[in-house]
Write a structure and sequence with these properties.
Blueprint: E1 11-14, E2 23-28, E3 34-38, H1 51-54, E4 70-71, E5 74-75, H2 78-96, E6 101-105, H3 111-125, E7 130-132, H4 139-149, H5 158-163, E8 166-170, H6 174-177, H7 179-191, E9 196-200, E10 213-215, H8 222-235, H9 241-247, E11 248-249, H10 251-258, H11 263-270, H12 274-285, E12 290-294, H13 296-299, H14 304-318, E13 327-330, H15 337-342, H16 359-369, H17 382-390, E14 396-400, H18 404-407, H19 411-420, E15 423-428, E16 441-444, E17 453-456, E18 461-465, H20 478-488, H21 500-516, H22 531-535, E19 540-541, E20 567-568, E21 587-592, H23 608-613, E22 618-621, H24 623-629, E23 636-640, E24 645-652, E25 660-664, E26 697-704, E27 708-714, E28 724-729, E29 734-740, H25 747-755, E30 762-768, E31 773-780, E32 783-791, H26 799-807, H27 812-816, E33 830-832, E34 837-838, H28 839-849, H29 854-861, H30 871-887
Parallel strand pairs: 6-7, 6-14, 8-9, 8-12, 9-10, 11-20, 12-13, 14-15, 15-16, 21-25, 22-24
Antiparallel strand pairs: 1-2, 2-3, 4-5, 4-16, 17-18, 18-19, 21-26, 22-25, 23-24, 23-26, 27-29, 27-32, 28-29, 30-31, 31-32, 33-34
The protein binds iron/sulfur cluster (SF4).
Residues 15, 17-18, 20-22, 45, 49-50, 52-53, 178-180 line the site of iron/sulfur cluster (SF4).
Amino acid sequence: MTAPAPPGCPVATACPYCGVGCGVLATPDGFGGAAIKGDPDHPANFGRLCSKGSALGETIDLEGRLLEPRINGAPAPWDDAISLVADRFRAAIAEHGPDSVAFYVSGQLLTEDYYAANKLMKGFIGTANIDTNSRLCMASTVVGHKRAFGADTVPGTYEDLEEADCVVLVGSNLAWCHPVLFQRLAAAKTARPGMKVVNIDPRRTATSALADLSLRLAPGSDVALFNYLLNQIEAEGAVDASFVEAHVTGFPEAMAEARRATLKRTAEITGLSPVEIEAFAQLWLRRERVVTVFSQGVNQSSAGVDKVNAILNCHLATGRIGRPGMGPFSVTGQPNAMGGREVGGLATTLACHLDLTVPEHREGVRTFWNAPAMPQGNGLKAVDLFRASADGRIKALWIMSTNPAVSLPEADDVAAAIAACPFVVVSDIIADTDTTRLADVLLPATGWGEKSGTVTNSERRISRQRPFLPAPGQARPDWRIIADVGAAMGWPEAFAWESEAAVFREHAALSGVASSLGGDFDISGLKHLGDAEYDALDPVQWPVPHHGEPGGRLFGEGGFATPDGRARMLPLVHRAPATPLSPEWPFRLNTGRVRDHWHTMTRTAKSARLSAHMAEPYLEIHPDDAAAAGIEPATLVSVESPFATAVLRAIVTDRTPRGSVFAPMHWTAITAARGRIDALVGAETDPLSGQPESKAQPVRLSPFRPAWYGFALSRRAPLPTTAYWAEARGPAHWRVELAGTAQPADWVAFARTLFDLPGTVEAVSVIDSARPVARIAFVVDGRTEALLLTSDAPVEAARAPLAEAFDAGAEARPMLSGRPAGNRPDPGPIVCSCHGIGANTIAAAIAAEGLSTVEAIGAALGAGTACGSCRPEIATLLQAFQPEIAAE
Ligand code: SF4
């Protein structure tokens, strides 16, 4: 196996967060840390990193790590844990059959891990009950690609975004969710101002700042919009007849449906004006080089697959695919969503883009694996898998590298389903998550910086993740854990890999078999890599049928992976979100990500600067809706669906349209009292892909009126138990937002319990007995150890200066005022995480100095000059000032 690097030697690896797949140079310091910078030679990012990637070095300490196997909470030797897992899975299979067991895996796994898990489940245990959290992310695109192209293939490359004359972003807040790709696009637009960007999203997001045209369409109306575009493609003579004739079927049927999409009808469905719709169509039609980028706003829908195919229809009709600067382009959420798709990580796919339901594919893989027990059909998709666990059909469940008790829709029911399963194994790097709390057996896996293998990014580029730290404690690579269980279950020869390189070689060799069966995923040119060559493998785009002749664009000359080699256009009909609004449930809840956190924050919450950007769970609500509901800015709001209730901080903004609200999905029971957003989301799914509709849940809102609000700082982890709390890490403190439904009888005693401080610690307090106003500081050796400020309204403390003073050891009494630095201005919400610069500071500089460009603000304040992830937000702040600047 690849050994970790010696201290001081930079190691080229890949970022473990989003699907851009940036290259990282990590230089270990010899003490468990590492200096991080972008890899200038990696073709995904050419040295850039976003805020999350830049902060990777702050997330690799061992705090909270799972470092030894545990059985029923007690440390256990590896051999005992492996034997127990193998015995319980074998027993369940013997008594109830192979479909009584399941794996739920993750786009965080490396391709080698993913391959091993799929081989064990689909080839040896004999069931397809292995699904992945990519079901929540990309499943609609997988099915859409397969329907149109015959295979799950992204045709283009990142250069296409830079070479396009028009880039259309659909359901994609690229600025926050794929920041480096957004930066590449922004740089290209700066270099070629004639390039047009269209942003199609119900919300106004950071991405909107780059757009020449923003279409804030009604949630779920994308098919209607792209049907109209297809209609206009034909009406304005933009069909590429020779491409369609040579390479496409289904054109007449698709057009027959698209011709029904009149401008009037499209405007009614999308809520857009005819002028906006026409402007979009003209931008698309007048430029041949068009790339349509799409992401979760398309995928996470009960009509997700049709949305994907509506986009693909337009590119196929015009032949704008697989050529420089043009094509449909799905961007994946996770670092290895694509690698997972390549190994058949979904319950509905087989290795190397083959299909379980095709007998020749099954037989080809079975022969290659010498597999004793291939399933005859697809397994349970994620939502169904946990329903099967809830109703007792699943007797043994292994969850790898993911946190479904938070991230799946109807998450409370999912947590109950996991708890109900007779035997649950969780392999993870973190000891305490909402999901590990439900496990019978915990298996410690190696994490980023320790593990070795490959990942594939959104443009089909395979990169090495290389280790630069030793495996801590008893942690092992996932592929090794899976192989050990496979061997213990009775198949030692099939899982006898001596290294991750050996797993990769087998995967590459199988892709050659798949290619001979008509599959497009072929990396057989890499099947003879020696261990040293594998260690040194440069980023390479597939297909790689011959070593040294990699990748590039696909489908420009046809050659689709269908039996007749032709792509399929499909007749598509608009369908509204599955659950309609009603007087009882009048708002659509849209969910998504914030810029600086990742998934359920098990890693990013360790970084103080990442936590500074958005420190608590929140709800964006339009000012008109907030006023009608009696919700004031910065107060708390109760968000209720038929499945659960959350309590969130209200951000009143017209970024979100009337009738719709937005909440991020990162907060868990570990980081907030009632911020688990996916508990609110119903498990409606796309009928073809099984992907949940995570952006259209009907909810209702009401003010959450606590008896008091609080803000606290503490040097040790606090123990909040109030009706509302949310905690975040600072450089040398924990920060907690609080609210309680009853005023404590003794504020000081309450604060001691909150901060877990004994009665011997000195308290300095100012308490208003008539109102819930308390100001309490605890002092140890002259230094403020903890601070609590409460009020009958949201606490008006300047949080950043207060936290700064707290970390600097300021005296207690000035801190009780909430303004320890006197009249020093409050920087406001953090915009630039790298330099800790807030919105108030930037706004003041714009107003005082007449700054009018992002560059000018960077020169004046430094904001936006490091990783650059905040530049779209700075641009948005500038736009807010434009009328004033123009008037001067
Ligand atoms: Fe990582 Fe950011 Fe690059 Fe995504 S854009 S891979 S999160 S550095």
